[in-house]
Prior knowledge:
The chain is of the alpha+beta class. The chain has seven helices and eleven strands.
Amino acid sequence: MPLFQTIQCNDNTRILIWEITESFDELRSKVVLKEKTQLRLDGMKSEMHQRAFLSVRMLIQEMGFTDKDLHYDEFGKPYFDCHNFISITHSYHFAAIIISDETVGIDMELQREKIIRIGDKFTDYECNYLKPDFSEEYVKKLTVIWGAKEAIFKIRNEKGISFKDHIQIEAFSLDESQTQASLHFDNLVKDFDVHYKEIQSENSEDKFTLVFAFEK
């Protein structure tokens, strides 16, 4: 399938989302990979993971980059050899990237009731405003919180950061599309603008939450 959606966040930031409907062979035939990337692809045991990996290469091609332009640091954080920042996510049959001249992070998650069972593993500060129940709204709010913390972690990418203890997401409404967050870690306090959006394919009843964050 071609590009599923493009979101122009601001003049210098764009999100591209790919719905993964192609076979592995279809995707592989459309991208040129450097040797290091091919070895990484060959080492993946899951074909779904391989297809998501290749879909990311399709997305960067849409933005005028190639696999040769994309690198990973020692912690696995992706980067380009230019002024643009990139963050990557994939969840089931979706892959997405955000490219900006600002420091950004992105995450995409399938909305599932399962998140209720692990909510106490990544929420603490947020319990001041959350109303725990088994409602659809509660699931959606937990998914936004998890995605926001994941996006912020991708930005900082430092060993020892705890989602529960170090990242705080301010109260928010599902009727809106943004909130604020902060990271408190090793005497450092960093603030973030967090944006969230629901994504749904026409081919499935599954709903996903897309979250992206900008470091202030």
